[in-house]
Write a structure and sequence with these properties.
The chain is an alpha/beta fold and about 290 residues long. The chain has three domains: about 1-150, 2-Layer Sandwich (Beta Polymerase, domain 2), CATH 3.30.460; about 150-235, no CATH class; about 240-290, no CATH class. It has helices at about 35-50, 55-65, 80-90, 130-135, 150-160, 170-180, 185-190, 195-210, 220-225, 245, 255, 275-290; strands at about 10, 15-20, 25, 55, 65-70, 75, 95-100, 105-110, 115-120, 135-140, 145-150, 240, 260-265.
Length: about 290
């Protein structure tokens, strides 16, 4: 089979620039003028209002990996307690700004342009807290001084995104390859907590994807997690729980609705979401499927 001749990513050698004060200079962005103006205006108004926020998504990914050429959506991360204030600021200047899903995301719109305001993850496991801001990195985007979400939190969030239409495992691999030697692994392990098998799965996959780069990841992390899956440590539990919904809200829904498994997202069985939040996400999924958005 012939190898593909192109990639959705554009590799730059090396164009990521860091100023003498450690501020990442994001390369010129391939945006149409209307989109660039909208993004810049949103950033300016949030910065001017003193609402604390961080930048993530493809902008941060490009800075952290030097891999560009992807869709430049603007993902803004902020604490839940600041969402109402951010929406008020952006509504006052004429944007359609509203909560999209009560437990994790709001959206700002102007015609067909959208900016996401993210304060958790869809599965409820990755809330934006003060620690995100403590390790954020300064950057300049669209002429604005911003801060990027930490690499650890980017890995943490992306590790759980395993939908049919969107799988962020490759992003996790790229981030680990570049930053494996400098990551705060103890902090990352603490972030995953009881969901450590998800991190272990990515570490095993990393060894397969990059056999020549295995020394970039510290051995103690893999050794620690592998001890937890030793035969003597493995056992089934009585409750029929499917944690697949934590990774994909769509692909494991039949296990819950048809096979009688309990939804692993639910708080009463160790998840992070209320029953109401799970029902809301399921209904939102059905609407997306019916409209062809999914």
């Amino acid at each position: 089979m012939p190898r593909p001749t192109s990639s959705p990513y554009r590799r730059r050698e090396p164009t990521r620039a860091w100023s003498t004060d450690g501020v990442a200079q994001v390369p010129p962005l391939d945006l149409d003028p209307r989109t660039a103006a909208f993004y810049r205006d949103v950033l300016e108004h949030l910065a001017g209002s003193a609402v604390p926020f961080l930048l993530g998504g493809s902008y941060a990914f490009e800075v952290y990996t030097d891999l560009g050429g992807r869709t430049k959506d603007l993902d803004i991360f902020l604490r839940a307690r600041d969402v109402k204030r951010a929406l008020s600021v952006l509504s006052r200047v004429g944007y359609d700004a509203a909560v999209h899903s009560p437990h994790w995301i709001a959206k700002v719109r102007e015609d067909d342009q959208v900016v996401d305001l993210i304060f958790n993850s869809g599965n409820g496991l990755c809330p934006v807290d003060d620690a995100w801001f403590e390790r954020a990195r300064p950057a300049e985007v669209l002429g604005q001084q911003v801060r990027l979400i930490p690499v650890e939190e980017m890995i943490w969030q992306k590790a759980f995104i395993q939908e049919r239409e969107r799988y962020d495992g490759a992003d996790v691999m790229h981030l680990m390859r570049v930053h494996g030697r400098t990551l705060d692994w103890e902090r990352l392990l603490a972030r995953f907590a009881g969901n450590w098998p998800v991190l272990l799965a990515h570490l095993i996959l990393y060894d397969y994807v990059y056999p020549s780069e295995r020394d970039r990841l510290p051995s103690f992390v893999l050794e620690d997690l592998l001890r937890r899956v030793a035969p003597s440590e493995r056992h089934s539990i009585e409750e029929r729980i499917c944690n697949g919904t934590v990774l994909s809200r769509a692909q494991y829904l039949p296990d819950v609705e048809q096979l009688g498994f309990l939804d692993g997202r639910l708080q009463q069985i160790g998840g992070a979401l209320s029953r109401r939040a799970v029902q809301f996400e399921t209904e939102r999924l059905r609407k997306e499927l019916a409209s062809g958005e999914h």
